[in-house]
Amino acid sequence: MHHTKFLLSFFILLFIAGCGGGSSFDLPPATAETPEQSGGDGGGSDPVVEEPAQINVQIVASLGLINGADVLITTSDGTAIEGASGALDQTGTVIVTHDGSYTGPILVTVTGNDSATYFDESAGTTLPMGSDIVLRAFAPTFQDAIGVTILTELAAQILDGVNGAVDAAAVTAANTAIKETLAPDVADILTPPTVVGEDNITAQALTNSDAGRYALRLAALASMAAGNEAPALSILAQLAADLADGDIDGSGATGAIADLDYEAGTFSSLFAAAVQLAASTLADADLVAAAGSFSVTLDANVLQSVIDAGVTLPDSVAELISGGIDAGTGGGGAITGDFDLTITGEIVTFGVGTSFEVAIKNIAAPSPSDTTEITQLIEETVAGVSNITNLQITVINNTADRITFEVTMEASQSGVSVTLNLNYDYVPAGTTPSDSTGGDPVSNSGGSTTGDLSSAAACSTFSGAATAATVPGFLSAEVRNLTYNEIAAGGPYSNGDTAEFVFSSSGLLFIDNVEVASGPVLCNGNEREAIWLDTNNGVIYSVSDLTSSFNEVNINNADTGGFLGQFSQ
Questions:
Q1: Which end of the chain is more exposed for a tag (fewer CB within 10 A), N or C?
Q2: Domain for residue 457, yes or no?
Q3: DSSP states of 142-164 as a string?
């Protein structure tokens, strides 16, 4: 697995392309100059010479807010259109006026210069925008307002490869393909997003509108490359390379791509978490509620969608798609899996908690037998969140039918402190958490029989027979912070030590997020007490009461059975 950098942060990250305090302006109405009429002798008059109407188009470019960059509108093949140029002002917009004589597809190009800057929402700072930084947007024709973003640039790069003229149909096909993949709930990627600048990054003013939803998506994407010097530009470059074969799958035109800030298998969950974190600082209550349904769609090849729409791309592109380069292996298409993931939790910003739920269908889950892999997966999933601290991952369920993690962390986004308390719940595709086996960490129901006798030797210490123990739902449903009362010296704990205990429904015992034992057993038919053997520390953990409610954890010497002490609340 490639390690996500961080984090981009995620929970990630994060973030942030477009907050309120917007840059939306009413467009001046189109005007027409009225020529003077001159009268001649004999009562006659010269014919009226009508000037073409002057038409305005508002250009809104966002990385977030771009100030001072040059804007040029040309025909789709680069031919100049008289008067169709300008420069973005301090609001990130410019109104360009043209004579209306050209009505075909157009190309809007935003180019940096020595004095231009942009505000990177993920980095939380204003950065220079030199002449090497270019964003473009193709539109099928002039329209009142046009947004220029990293998504329109991705579509423009597809159109760079079109054989022949770029017509309106080709423009629509490319823009639609990118929209359906990375912004399915935005009507059109040419929609001007709300622009986020340094003055409004924490205003929580993005609304549940096309402009607000678009801005939130851009913010989340930028956050996925947090930790880079220029996150928004970095994620643009990574996605452009990844989409060279039409899929977001970790591979491009020549195979696996090194140093991506995301994993192909966790892109969807990383993006979903990044949206939630960005929403906690950028969005109003309505958009926060809506953000739980934001997703990306990775099951269709972007380039194939364009070809299916009748656009002619080079033969080499068609061969690349049909050959199917898979991440790291050379064979492939989009990555799917046989699990559904539900992420629930709370994000606390400015002391106010915001609850959310995100569902992601048909993805791969970590191996339920590999705790290290599970931990790594969660770390990579949240790797896009900015400045993560105090990250803790606790495995609650770890079975073939259910994998559940609790994740807590603190993050800082552009100077705003955020606390995240999250729950990742994987179940077989097409089922719901209540359908699956394993303890439900929300409802405290369920439980599972491990069938594993890894701790059977503990019963031998007590001169008894071992049978597999069932971990009840109430025991596996929460993290318990316990304090040790020492009775006899010689154990791995001292009087007054505190530790965090988690009893997984799969039978794993975690202490302070470290797996110490598995395969609990019942000894001598005692159904009230589950026994775990910790061979590394040479102790036995006896947990009761299994039939009603948690009481304590008794600690015994694994060799002699001698009572050492007790953990209790």
A1: C
A2: yes
A3: --SEEEE-HHHHHHHHHHTT-SS
Asked, for residue 368, whether it belongs to a domain, the answer is: no
Closest CA to 454 of 436, 469, 471: 469
Is 498 domain-assigned? yes
Amino acid letter for position 355: S
22 by DSSP, 3-state: which? coil
Give the C-alpha separation, 162 to 366, whole Å: 40
The enclosing H or E element of 205 equals none
- What is the full DSSP assignment across 544-568? E-TTS---EEEEEETTT--EEEEEE
Whether residues 81 and 217 share a domain: the answer is yes
What burial class does residue 134 get, using C-beta atoms within 10 Å of its C-beta: 0-12 exposed, 13-18 middle, 19+ buried? middle
Which tens digits make up the pLDDT trace of 168-211?
999 999 999 999 999 998 999 999 999 988 777 766 778 899 99
The last residue of a domain, from among 308, 323, 338: 323
CA 544 from centre of chain: 41
- In 253-375, beta strands by DSSP E: 255-256, 339-349, 352-363
Of the three residues 273, 290, 323, the one that is the final residue of a domain is: 323
Peptide bond into 7 cis (omega under 30): yes
Q: What are phi and psi of 11, to 5 degrees?
A: -55, -10
pLDDT along the chain (569 residues), means of 10: 32 31 34 39 55 82 93 92 92 90 92 94 86 95 94 94 87 94 93 86 79 92 84 92 88 80 77 80 83 82 89 76 44 52 76 70 68 65 62 72 79 69 81 50 35 81 85 74 93 93 80 83 89 93 89 92 93
- Give every CB contact of residue 17 below 8 A, 6+ residues apart in sequence: 62, 63, 64, 121, 149, 193, 196, 215, 216, 217, 218, 219, 220, 221, 222, 232, 278
HSE-CB of 97 using CA atoms within 13 angstroms: 9
**Contact assessment for residue 224 and residue 260, using Cβ atoms and an 8 Å cutoff:** no
Which range marks the domain in which residue 518 is found? 448-568
pTM of the prediction? 0.62
What is the number of structural domains in the chain? 2
What is the C-alpha to C-alpha distance for residues 518 and 516, in angstroms, rounded to an integer?
A: 7
Contact 221, 214 (CB under 8 A): no
